[in-house]
Amino acid sequence: MFAVYAARIDKEQPLSGLESGERPEPEQRQGWTTVRVRAASLNHHDLWSLRGVGLGEESLPMILGCDAAGIDEDGNEVVVHSVIGQTGHGVGPRERRSLLTEKYQGTFAELVSVPAWNVLPKPADLSFEEAACLPTAWLTAYRMLFTNAGVRPGDAVLVQGAGGGVATAAIVLARAAGLRVYATSRDAGKRQRALELGAHAVVEPGTRLPERVDAVIETVGAATWSHSVTSLRPGGTLVISGATSGPNPPAAELNRIFFLELKVVGSTMGSKDELADLLSFCALTGVRPVVDSVLPMDRAREGFERLASGDVFGKIVLTNR
């Protein structure tokens, strides 16, 4: 079958290890099912995999891709939950959880195999391309907002780095849930698009907000950390799921964190139940993922190059027809 995969690890030039071509079809495993992939979306996780983060040389070649929507063995339209081993389904009882592409082959292929427990019905109102955007970036944003930040309608939230997959998801979900939404971006065009998505105000990183917020959705890391901490009201919550600008901010802001009793919460992905809730939320409210572009699977390198350059607003989707 045709697939897009990591053939080599290169920390400095990750795309040099990206290849596409024929790979073996998934083997049958007890308790697993094979999904014929109709659409899959790119994540920064795929770039990190090419750098060797979470992926070792001993696991190569590894088909990339965490997210997918497609057709299962019974002809049902499904969405794949990409966290394997979260509850022990389909794996040994002591196996730690992992994402597709870390231990098991990913979704940038004609076929992907996952535990049967990991497939959910795709709402009929969502296209395959839209559904394929949800299981990583959008699920991460959903969990950050509604589980880990615990925000409620009427609260205020700051989303750092408008344009990224998690950030755009957070803006759309927060506005749909009745929150006051502020966002940042260095790029004027992305600030304008964030307003169009529903942000009430958008500023450059570091700019003082009209009010202190109840929660901050942080994926940028070092470059925006101080701004995130200083933007919180006393008792507010900073939820972080990534650090694209680096993990070591020049100032940790510890005095402010303890004096104002701020909460800092790490967040990674989400549960199958949260993905089911997200699918229902989108189907019921009309909220749809922000799709930057759709490419056929054999043009995956173009998508990786755009993601690596940062010239993206929303999700890049790859399709099989």
Question: How is this structure best described in words?
Answer:
By secondary structure, the chain is α/β, with parallel strands linked by helices. It has helices spanning 44-50, 128-131, 134-148, 165-176, 188-197, 225-230, 254-259, 272-285, 300-309; strands spanning 2-6, 18-22, 32-41, 62-63, 69-71, 77-80, 83-84, 98-99, 111-115, 119-121, 156-159, 180-184, 201-203, 213-218, 232-240, 263-266, 291-296, 315-319. Strands 3, 5, 6, 9, 10, 17 and 18 form a 7-stranded mixed sheet that branches. A 6-stranded parallel sheet has the order 13-12-11-14-15-16. A 3-stranded antiparallel sheet has the order 2-1-4, with no helix packed on it. Helix 3 crosses helix 4 (165-176) and helix 3 crosses helix 8. The protein is globular and about 55 Å long.
Strand content: 25-35%
- Going by helix content, strand content and strand pairing, the class is alpha/beta
Q: Secondary-structure element order, as H and E?
A: EEEHEEEEEEEHHEHEHEEHEHEHEHE
Low-confidence stretches: none
